[in-house]
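The protein record filed below.
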Amino acid sequence: MKRYLLAGLLFLAGTNLLSVQGQASSMPSVQIAREEQPPSAKPGPAALAATITAGDLRNHLTVLASDEYEGRETGTEGQRKAADYIARFFRSLGLPAIGEDESYFQSIAFTATSWENVSLEVNGQIYKHLWDFYSFPGTNSSLPSASYKEVLFLGYGIDDQGYSDYRGVDVKDKVLLVYPGEPLDADSVSYVTGTRQLSEWSSDWRKKLEAAHRNGAAAIFIIDYQIQKSIAEQRRFMLNPRLQIGRGEEPEGKYANNLFLSTTLAKEIMGKRMKKVIKARDGILATGKPASVKLKTKLTLQQDKRIRQVLGSNVLGYIEGSDPALKDEVVVVSAHYDHLGKKGEDIFNGADDNGSGTSTVLEVAQALAEAKKQGAGPRRSVLCLLVSGEEKGLLGSKYYVENPVFPLENTVADVNVDMVGRVDKKHADNPNYIYVIGSDRLSTQLHEINETANATYTQLELDYTYNADDDPNRYYYRSDHYNFAELGIPAIFYFNGTHDDYHRPSDTVDKINFEKMARIGQLVFHVTWELANRDERIQVDVPQK
């Protein structure tokens, strides 16, 4: 490490402990604010943050995103290797083993569901899964080959008190064909809500599966106008085993079997009665009165699922607080360490997603452990929480909040780090930036802490684009911090945006900007340090809509 005047002297003797590889590393070209203090003084936050270096981050990430770890998919040997690496590093820092059986792990049992075979034949023509149609294994039951001679067009597949396509219609053991969303009149007023506010029938397609099951339908087909876009966005959920915590949902008792169809395939099912279907749909939109049409169509559907049990684990790095009055309060610093795994010969190494966040949290843990070793540890406790199952639906963090190691009422905030090693196209000319999401959603104090820490120490460009309520990407809801925020715990999420290598085998270590990553890691440390050391814990002070 470079020598820092006075503030850095205390750390030179322990340099061999500050890297999991035991190697000295170079500081990034970031000027951290120096604190003038006598040689015998305990280290201040700037000196501690200075231990988070590009070299140490590279050491961690080179291991975590290596081919040996095979993409760290939850439930695989690669994920277990990554968990062991993280645990060994926590042990090397002298952190206590607070997990089960005196380990660093919180084990999670998952049910993995995937397709063995999905096939659809209509009027003698075979159609392709993930091209002409798609289907999620988690919302379907296994269905042996079943043939039908009729499909029933049933409007929008809604069964609501204000509007019901099912009213007066016998759908038992029938295959239903429905439009997405809900019917609106010429003034965009919903026939379901009676206002321009859309109902849950538009935002949650599972309600249509539940309604079909409740009314005894054999299956329901939903038309998707943008099927190729949907398949591109959801492909990994249909190709990779879908995990659920424990036994998970039993779709047999909740959902009708279902497919999402292209408009071309929907027209084939409608056949010569397509004009009657369009007329019925237009009548619904004009009058708000449901209509149905019987379609003489021969189809055969088969959906074979594979179900198995797998194990994942969260990894716990605990730094106990030094203040007897405050140490029962906990600041969580989180990142997911899992990724997409291996598909055929392709390894999805996940260097940025989320080896970068994992490596950053390891370095924050190291800085906090060094502070404690020097007799200047944080007043409140800090839990460095590395979770699995994020790529399967934020499952590791969900498991933690449902089975917290420390009471949630004592959890001050969650500081979440997910993809911080790359530069997106918007910031190509200025890599020293970070997207900040969620900091002001629950607590104005958390937002102010982040702003002040950045202005004082790191001088990054803080970009709040993805924090907007109307962000179409909905990133606020798509990383592990959300499971904390949903329960009213203030949360902040650091994110560098996406890039062309996102969720591709090309997300590799050689493309990481470690200098930028170190600077973000230092900001994460400073925010965590302030949350853990201020006299009063931050409050939830933002009115919820």
Notes: Residues 87 and 115 are 34 Å apart (CA to CA). The domain at 112-307 is CATH 3.50.30.30 (Glucose Oxidase; domain 1). The two ends are 48 Å apart (CA to CA). Confidence is low (pLDDT under 50) at residues 1-36.
